[in-house]
Amino acid sequence: MDRLASFGTDPFKPPCRGCSTYLVEPFIKCAECGPPSFYLCLQCFTRGFEYKKHQSDHKYEIMTSDFPVLEPGWTAQEEMALLEAVMDCGFGNWQDVAYQMRTKTKEECECHYMKHFINNPLFSSTLLSLRQMEDARTADSAIPFKPTDDPPRPTFDSVLSRDMAGYMPARADFMEEFDNYAEWDLKDIDFVDDDSDILHALKIAVVDIYHSRLKERQRRKKIIRDHGLINLRKFQMLERRYPKEVQDLYEAMRRFARVVGPIEHDKFIESHALEFELRREIRRLQEYRQAGIRSFCTGAKVYERVKRVREDERRKRTMLCDALQYIQDGRACRQWLHKQAAIDAGITPVVTTITTTGTGRRSAPPLNLTGLPGTEKLNEREKELCQVVRLVPGAYLEYKQALLNECRRQGGLRLAQARALIKIDVNKTRKIYDFLIKEGYINKA
Questions:
Q1: What's the pLDDT band for 188 if we cut at 50, 70, 90?
Q2: What is the dihedral of CA 410, 411, 416, 422, to 10 degrees?
């Protein structure tokens, strides 16, 4: 063996001359035969394959790319694979580049490529000229997004991609533009010399309308860029740092953010957050004054400590009354003991209401009406009724309207008629009937 050579200079890999299989590195090249070059796989080489002028004692070269070129740890084969992956996936898509290479991570691919192919002094002048040509070519292109940190690069049709409204960080643009079909109005317009003055003016007007639509598109992009609205989840996390009252104000004033800059809008919200904190502190000071406290060092601390103890005692008395009321129910007693142990351990207990029937049998807990449709149409007493009888607001409103119509038609309503009209549990029907009679919605027949 005279030397170790690389196959990277050959434009293609011919088959083995002995077995006609595709060559896999490393393989053998005869140094005396050729042209054309005479290649053998390792199996044919070890058997001493001879063909025409080629003899088994000829000098040979080992063809392989498994050696470092630019830095240790990166073979020549991996260097070629990196360049091909960057050409296929595009510069900056390091996740896809690493997936195509399969032997390096995206951080290793990015660091190696930037070090040896971008920041290399040998390529600096060439890259500078190419960059200047690219800047001149894209001077009038879309507004580039330049956030302070690298934006996320979600996969297509993922949850994060939908939250970002289809924003593509590698292109600094959106997958679907605002007024996405604005260009359709221009695709069939053609200015020719035979156009009349009216037709020519009409085409010019269409172009002007298209320019105004483009300006609106760019204006919206500028608002999104300036206010940092691309990453919606990060924007929502910043909102959650404010108290509930300031969050409601933030939601109400968000529509006015388009007419002011991001700094002015943030100052406005921060000033209202500070106002909220000041108002809360003023209320605390007024409470101290009403209690006769004049010293923060001793009086305020003692007052706060006694106030916490008083609230704990009130909560314990409330829970004790609940337990004594349902002393016949062993399950309720056990739950009360668990809550008491949680309070003694300094853990906030989860308060649940336990109700029993007249026979001591435990009934179902009240229905939670949060988020149910129709809840906003009920008053407080109707909400309490729906919770007790475990009836959704929509069904209650239907039953109520049916009973009102029947009472109005007959001039009164009896319980038997109500049960015949509403096909639900008779106990629930009775409670609804008694409630409507008590509230004056219907009259007894």
A1: confident
A2: 70
